Amino acid sequence: MSPKHVVFKKVSRDKSVAVYMAKRDFVDHCDFVDPVDGVIVIDPAQLKGKKVYVMLSCTFRYGRQDMDVMGVVFRRDLFVVTRQVYPELQDKEKLTHTRVQQKLLHKLGDNAYPFFFEFPDNLPCSVSLQPGPNDVGKKCAVEFEVKAFCGENQDEKIEKQSSVGLTIRKIQFSPENTEVAPFADMTFEFLMSEKPLHVKLTLPKETFYHGEPVKANVEITNSSSRNIKDISLSGELTWANLYTPALTLCNFAYQHTHLDSVPSGTTLKKEYTLYPLLAYNKDRRGIALDGRLKHEDTNLASSSIVKQEVLKEVQGMLISYKVVLKMIASGEVSVEVPFKLMNPKSEPGKDLKYFKRVYLKGVVYGDDDESPTEA
């Protein structure tokens, strides 16, 4: 029995061009990023002598679409590259890099042309900000798109009826977990107190998977003359908009207990649990989420992992997490430990579970906006 392949298809309104892609998730492995490849199918009768181009773009919208006023657009193209696919400038064999491309070219005939792109190192992953109930238009997001269009040249205005765009995602998976448990160990001294307050916050591991509870061990040794009260533990999601100097903080999980206190001369050892789930944050406007496609659920944004040598070049949004322990001892005292929240790596030989529209035996196609069907 032949293996099943996933293929995504989208056709322009005038049927002049169509895009076929074997996947819409492209993994950033830090050392390299999966290349973007697919096939463009043309209708020469509809083209009427025009050329056909394919474009890969990464766009950062750092303001809502309804904020665009008086010609000021809160949007920037982080990366755009355009290539001509018809008339072809290279042999098809040089642009054919995968077996699925080969199958598509074989089945789709002489009017099918392959394309191939590579990502640069300094692009962020797909991420979006959850809009509020009254927000309209496109949301703040980092988005990637493959667009095919026809025209006399690549710089002329693209006509909607003669173009077709397919949204894709750039994603990262969790690195291998290390045995090191991250922790913060701090000592606080107070006026009029001979001995200090000692606080230790420990996490069992550095990386947690989406849907997994975050357990934090708290150890407070209060040798000071102050009484410790109002102990709280929170998870903070930080996203850095690299076009403004500010960081945006969102509490995604919170645990506050008035019952826990540490009187002078006593010790508290306790495990707290936080739940970093989108289900508990569906009404939180502005919280960062992993980029999503139509018909698909998503989760809180995954942590960003960037190579140190290109960190200063990365544009868009970077995501980080930390657990913050706070308490009152005449004034507020806090300790924090960073951690990563990500998806686990998929097992070799298994398809990613994201964005399957059509299940193919050999090659069968389904429009992007259709519900999944089985061939």
From TrEMBL:
Swiss-Prot/TrEMBL GO biological process terms: G protein-coupled receptor internalization; nervous system development; signal transduction
UniProt cross-references to Gene3D superfamilies, sorted A to Z: 2.60.40.640, 2.60.40.840
Cross-referenced SUPFAM superfamilies: E set domains (SSF81296)
GO cellular component, one term: photoreceptor outer segment
Domain (Arrestin C-terminal-like): residue spans on this chain: 193-346
GO molecular function: G protein-coupled receptor binding
Family classification: Belongs to the arrestin family.
Protein name, as recorded: S-arrestin
